[in-house]
């Protein structure tokens, strides 16, 4: 092979290699992006387990500003303690799980945060469906279950973070449920004071006679006295009038 032919071949090979590399870089990002949860050696019913969550950025123009997580059955927000996360981000319980949110991250920056769970449920795995929101309002929905996450066949699905659990340790038991902040209604007690006024006669004693005044005297007594006074006064007036007419 002549020198000129060899040079042309090398140049052609270099160009093709560069093109292939560029295509690989361009397509590798979306295919590799994912959200996940990790806890080394986690077993069912383990207590005080540290969970590390990570979510990769898929946007080239906006930063991640919030993650909303839907908790699996057997874990409630009160079971979780927020350990660490992006600077300025806060943990907030919700009706179906929690959010971790704060100032938007730099474009392309991934999220990682750590929670401690009071106890893992008695299950083979737990799934943490996650909604990942960017500063421009875009949302990545990491909510697909295993049978739904095949996507287009090239790894472009959005599988939910999933944590496989080993079998529970011998003798492991479920702890009592975490107390909630909701008020509970106490059982009625014979010594407890009621907020509602008692019904008349509920004590079994006869109701007070409403015809008596405060000192227990019957209302009829003063009424009778007044009537007698009026009668006497009227009689005296009649007698005076009669005597005056007779004179």
UniProtKB/TrEMBL annotation:
<feature type="compositionally biased region" description="Low complexity">
    <location>
        <begin position="167"/>
        <end position="199"/>
    </location>
</feature>
<protein>
    <submittedName>
        <fullName>DUF1775 domain-containing protein</fullName>
    </submittedName>
</protein>
<feature type="region of interest" description="Disordered">
    <location>
        <begin position="167"/>
        <end position="215"/>
    </location>
</feature>
<keyword id="KW-1133">Transmembrane helix</keyword>
<dbReference type="InterPro" id="IPR038507">
    <property type="entry name" value="YcnI-like_sf"/>
</dbReference>
<feature type="domain" description="YncI copper-binding">
    <location>
        <begin position="101"/>
        <end position="165"/>
    </location>
</feature>
<feature type="transmembrane region" description="Helical">
    <location>
        <begin position="219"/>
        <end position="239"/>
    </location>
</feature>
<feature type="signal peptide">
    <location>
        <begin position="1"/>
        <end position="35"/>
    </location>
</feature>
<keyword id="KW-0472">Membrane</keyword>
<dbReference type="Pfam" id="PF07987">
    <property type="entry name" value="DUF1775"/>
</dbReference>
<keyword id="KW-0732">Signal</keyword>
<dbReference type="InterPro" id="IPR012533">
    <property type="entry name" value="YcnI-copper_dom"/>
</dbReference>
<keyword id="KW-0812">Transmembrane</keyword>
């Amino acid at each position: 092979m002549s020198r000129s032919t060899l040079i042309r071949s090398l140049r052609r090979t270099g160009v093709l290699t560069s093109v292939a590399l560029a295509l690989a870089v361009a397509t590798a990002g979306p295919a590799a992006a994912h959200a996940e949860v990790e806890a080394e050696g986690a077993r069912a019913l383990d207590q005080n387990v540290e969970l590390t969550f990570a979510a990769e950025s898929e946007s080239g123009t906006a930063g991640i500003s919030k993650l909303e997580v839907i908790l699996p059955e057997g874990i409630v927000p009160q079971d979780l303690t927020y350990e660490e996360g992006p600077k300025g981000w806060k943990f907030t319980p919700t009706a179906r799980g929690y959010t971790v949110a704060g100032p938007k991250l730099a474009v392309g920056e991934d999220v990682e945060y750590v929670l401690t769970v009071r106890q893992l449920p008695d299950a083979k795995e737990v799934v943490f469906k996650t909604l990942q929101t960017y500063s421009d309002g875009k949302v990545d929905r990491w909510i697909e279950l295993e049978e739904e996450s095949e996507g287009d066949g090239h790894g472009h699905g959005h599988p939910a973070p999933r944590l496989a659990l080993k079998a529970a340790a011998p003798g492991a038991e479920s702890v009592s449920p975490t107390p909630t902040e909701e008020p509970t209604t106490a059982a009625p007690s014979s010594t407890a004071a009621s907020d509602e006024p008692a019904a008349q006669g509920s004590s079994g004693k006869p109701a007070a006679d409403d015809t008596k005044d405060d000192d227990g005297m019957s209302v009829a007594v003063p009424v009778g006295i007044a009537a007698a006074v009026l009668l006497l006064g009227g009689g005296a007036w009649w007698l005076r009038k009669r005597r005056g007419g007779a004179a």
